[in-house]
Amino acid sequence: MNWLEVSLLVDGELAEAVADVLARFAPNGVVTESTGVKFLDEENEGVAVGPVSVRAYLEMNDQIEETRQKLEESLFYLGMIQPLPAPTYKQIADQNWMEAWKASYKPIPIGKRLMIVPAWMDSPEPKRIPIKIDPGMAFGTGTHPTTQLCLELIESFFVERSTLNVQRSTVIDVGCGSGILSIAALKLGAASALGVDIDIESVVNSRENADKNGIGAELILGQGSVAEVKAGQFAYASALLVVANILAPIIIRLFDAGLADLVDAGGEIILSGILAEQAEKVIEAASAKGLVLTDKRQMKDWVALRCKKPDF
């Protein structure tokens, strides 16, 4: 069988949106690949830099021209929101293309301790904690600034708690996606994590990624959101750390639904998926529920917030 490779080189902020579009036409998966890594200091704190290559492989059959036209229409509509480069195409002879792109995939260092690596690799830096994620999935691969910011703040939370004589933390991940945040929290020292998502495919994807990381019953997964957690449908209804990497308008609505109630007294919440111009509205919504902003980080146009709930 022959394949038509379609690829776009885009900014990291657009990579997951483009991957979602390509995934509609490529049932075998989508490849997202960081093109470079920048190490920020002598302690090997690094971030992915440069554009991200997003590629998909279409089966060369009688419908290929129709498929290509529909794909380009979908990219056109996405480009109306934010400009995109034109896709490039290359015919690939019959081969195991999955193995071909695996050979060039680059791990992504996050913060001081984490390393996102493809599931089939060991971390190239043994001192870093590997988070194994299948980069062929269309979302949650760690290339987007919102995911990277969340991971940095989760790391900070656990580094700080490790210096205190406190109990091991529980975590609730609202909108768990690929499970990457829950997996990172567990590897950084969480006692257990509850990941919920309204999309059942995300729940399945999270379990697959948990298996790749040797994580079992300590990660509880289920379909739902804030209302279902508050209603007691899962193992616990609140936690010392809550994370929500969604979108600012949804986060604000979830505060009205009781998102702050999921945070234990003295616990914290990490919020991301927030455009810089939306940050103040999210901070106001958090403050209205008694949460105190303790950290705000920005990467390009995206912001992540860390807030604490008072002990009383």
Quick structural summary:
This protein is of the alpha/beta class. It is built from 9 helices and 14 strands.
Name the descriptors:
four-stranded antiparallel β-sheet, seven-stranded mixed β-sheet, 14 strands, 312 residues, alpha/beta
Structure description:
The protein has 312 residues and is an alpha/beta fold. 32% of the residues lie in helices and 32% in strands. The protein contains nine helices and 14 strands. The strands form three sheets. A seven-stranded mixed sheet has the order 10-9-8-11-12-14-13, with helices on both faces. A four-stranded antiparallel sheet has the order 2-3-1-4, with helices on one face. A three-stranded mixed sheet has the order 5-6-7. The model is unreliable at 37-46 (pLDDT under 50).
